[in-house]
Amino acid sequence: MLNIRFIIKMLGMMFILETLFMLAATAVAFLYKGSDFYPLLQSSGIMFGTGVLFTLIGLRANEHTAGRREGMLTVSLTWALFSLLGMLPFYLGGYIDNITDAYFETMSGFTTTGSTILTDIETLPHGILFWRSLTQWQGGIGMIVFTVALMPIIGGGATQMFNAETPGITHERFRPRVTQVAKRLWGVYLFLTIVLIGMLWAGPMNLYDAVNHALTCISTGGYSTKNASIAYWDSAYIEYVITAFMFIGATNITLIYFFFNGNPKRLFKDEEMRWFFWFVLIITAMTTAWIMYRGIVDDFGTAFRESIFQVVTLVSTCGFATADYIPWGPFFWLLALVLMVVCGCAGSTCGGLKMGRFVILAKNLFNEFKKQTHPHAIIPVRMNGHAISGDIVHRVLAFAFAYIALIFVSCMVLMLDGMGFEETIGATISSISNVGPGLGSLGPVGNYADVPTVSKWFLSFLMMVGRLEIFTVLTILLPGFWKQ
Predict the structure, then answer these.
(1) In the chain, what is the straight-line distance between the N-terminal and C-terminal CA atoms, in Å?
(2) Cα(351)–Cα(79) distance, rounded to whole angstroms?
């Protein structure tokens, strides 16, 4: 039987912690004397009151009976309810005038998707924009992981929540206790954010913009404070710095920890990382050659800069923009879809299939060709010199099938709601992979304001499914999940 009290208690604790982040945005609103001060303050009160109520209801929860089901349900409800309460500043302040758009914008933030319904971002006050950026920063490595780091203070249940939130972290844990793992992950994440703030501030960005873009870059979220996104600054320095940190955000964060902890060889010897590096480099070269061949850009330096930025922003699922890639033609659209499907490394802040799974699928396919001529040979899939168990290969195949099947089903749903073919394909893959921009009118210079209402709710659901790597959310929809 499900431990409902444990789930309610954990949700309450996270709402209370989330109040601190919303109060930080409230402080920014107060500092800039914006009209958003009272909506943010009211929302903080509602968030805190809900957290206290939930905590009191679950006060006597038996934490020892919490298992995987409780962890999966807690994590799924966290994203759904955080988006519900997190949308309040937008809605109460009148910055987004309907619940559908407010929920879509907030879910897009917490899942680090970066899709937006806003048509004029620069008219929003500073506190609201900061709250918008904070939702992505928290969603990057996961509010759950932050909560797990504080488990010694708020109580048990860490392992169930950590496993449900971070199914992509495949490398061995570098500390015996899961709370120690979470603390170190957040330490690395915070350190990279601070470094990026300093580097952006050293360029043409002011401190406020540097903080906001650092929050949404390292989380590979992509929200900006400007309508033109990164193109607003027209700065090669800013673009290369952002490109580098989007690439870092798409890298396994445990390997980054080892890099800074005196063991950089793990990062460079990791097979998934090497595949990812060459994948990005090859598609960047193809894109550079393509846009020069088409005469879109004549100068090689500019062509390379635009190409690598667009390639990295798509493969990292960040969604920043320096150019509109829709006029680049169908050849690049196809490359964009490939980037949006494969995405970054396991254990990163990216969505999508993940490079680790892609490598396993590619090697398994190659092995099947070998078995055609050597049918009795036992040829295991190897990663980093170690044989991958058949169980892991089967799980990867199951994930890939579920991912592709979900894309097909979702496309049918959106088309039934009246969306166009290009927009449907782009929006579906973009939402499941948490990328942000799509194709057609939903490209990097477009937005989701005109998407039908039903489609917005469905895309919000897809964002959450993709953020939690499909199985976590879909499993709780099956009748067997609720049986004793």
Answers:
(1) 5
(2) 15
Find the angle CA(456)-CA(212)-CA(327) to the nearest 5 degrees.
55
CB 79 within 8 A of CB 110: yes
Integer Cα distance of 227 and 250 in angstroms: 24
User: In this structure, what are the phi and psi dihedrals at residue 343, rounded to the nearest 5 degrees?
Assistant: 65, -160
Calpha distance 160→111 (Å, rounded): 20
Query: At 387, phi and psi to the nearest 5?
Result: -70, 135
- For residue 480, give the DSSP letter: G
Q: Give the bridge partners for 193, in sequence order.
A: none
Report d(CA 360, CA 275) in Å as an integer: 11
Question: Cα dihedral angle (461, 466, 467, 471), rounded to 10 degrees?
Answer: 100
**Per-residue pLDDT tens over the stretch 399-451:** 999 999 999 999 999 999 999 999 999 999 999 999 999 999 999 999 999 99
Distance CA 446, CA 137 (A): 23
How high is the pLDDT of residue 154? 43
Q: How is residue 35 written in tokens? A: 């009209």
Q: Which residues are annotated as part of the binding site for K(+)?
A: 112-113, 221, 317, 434-435
* Residue pair 243/326 in contact by the 8 Å Cβ criterion: no
Distance CA 477, CA 474 (A): 5
List, for the chain, all residue ranges whose pLDDT scores fall below the cut of 70: 63-66, 142-179, 484
Tell the burial category of 35 from Cβ atoms under 10 Å away from its Cβ (0-12, 13-18, 19+): middle
Residue numbering of the annotated binding site? 112-113, 221, 317, 434-435
pTM: 0.91
Residue whose tokens read 């989380």: 219
The predicted pLDDT at position 163 comes to 53
Question: Residue 384: which H helix or E strand, with range?
Answer: none
CA–CA dist 391, 228 (Å, integer):
46
Largest CA distance in the chain: 74
Helix (H) or strand (E) holding 383: strand 382-383
